Amino acid sequence: MSKLTPRTISTAADHAHPDARHGRGAINNATNRYEAERRQREDDGWGNLEEAEPLRTVLHEDTSRSIIAWNKSPDVPFDRSINPYRGCEHGCVYCFARPTHAYLGFSPGLDFETQIVVKRNAAQLLRKELAARSYKPAVLSMGTNTDPYQPVERELKITRSILEVLLETRHPLGIVTKNFLITRDIDILSEMARLNLVKVHVSVTTLDRKLARAMEPRASTPPKRLEAIRLLNEAGIPCGVMPAPMIPQLNDMELERILEAAYDAGAREAGFVLLRLPLELKEIWREWLQEHYPDRAARVMKMVREARGGADYVPQFGNRMRGEGPYADLIAQRFKLACSRLGFNKRRLPTRSDLFVLPGKSDRDERQGSLF
């Protein structure tokens, strides 16, 4: 576990108070799976629950000695990734990464979106790891766990510092985000795109602003995400769309409309993922669903379980991303037909790994070094 140093102190005494969690996604600070005790907020009977200040975002310093995370999952097209931030202020209530906050001693609930762990020295660590004799370049992914362009990035610019290293070393990159802030880095990304080093996907979960505000309270609005797709593609940066996660009875009816809107904005690659509810996320999602959509909560969960073999979630490789059964098959077929009709995924642009140079070395230095 990384050593964490708080930068500020939260002023909220009760993370489950309705006033305190205004603008946040989760309903409460669910106990993580490593804690023996469980806490629940109770009314004292006087009918005047204490007032609470809005939750503030707290930054913690991560002193990890490495930055590249490795995986062997057959479900994803990459074996390495970088997470400049752990936890995500976007507050997406469905985020499958929420349970990872338990490893840090935090709750996957409100802590996940308010207690953010930052890696200020990410660029320095990356330089060191890319310079290792044993390192072999391949696509590095950002945004597959927590968003590299969440609000705090505007101030800290950690993601931008990583991009600078990757451009310098000519290293291939894939990015997934749901924040318009990515357009700030068009200058770097366009240079990388010119060398076929980068691909971007913007996650567009819904076109309904009301649903987006409730489900993804601090992420960019749907129109701004579509605008980001347009601006990136106009700058020569290949940017596709991820209508994900697809959720029965909430946003699955929008699948084709999302794809159409993204295609009009210039996207030519697309993918989707079915809602995933690992570990503590099951109850976090159920509570949110019951509060915001009580009229359809039971139906949503019934269809989720139908796509997961009768369970809330099945973590098996090959199953966890798309599910199984009639509902999962129908979503997959609709996605395939819509992509075919619109012209998505006709040609997937590859990124290059053969241009890689060691940190601090120019292309000319590399060519000269190869002579000896």
Short description:
With 372 residues, this protein is an alpha/beta fold. The protein has helices spanning 110-114, 122-130, 153-156, 158-169, 186-194, 209-215, 222-234, 255-264, 281-292, 297-306, 326-342, 363-369; strands at residues 4-6, 58-62, 68-70, 80-82, 85-86, 115-118, 140-142, 173-177, 198-203, 239-242. Helix 5 (186-194) links the parallel strand 8 (173-177) and strand 9.
CATH topology: pyruvate-formate lyase- activating enzyme
Widest sheet, order of strands: 3-4-7-8-9-10
The first-to-last residue Cα distance is 43 Å
Give the count of helical stretches: 12
H-E string: EEEEEHEHEHHEHEHHEHHHHH
How would you characterize the overall build of this protein?
With 372 residues, the chain is of the alpha/beta class. It has a single domain, classed as pyruvate-formate lyase- activating enzyme. Helix content is 31%, strand content 10%. The strands form 2 sheets. The protein has a 6-stranded mixed sheet. The radius of gyration is 21 Å and the shape is globular. 41% of the residues are buried.
Keywords:
372 residues; alpha/beta; pyruvate-formate lyase- activating enzyme; 6-stranded mixed β-sheet; 4-stranded mixed β-sheet; 12 helices; 10 strands; disordered C terminus
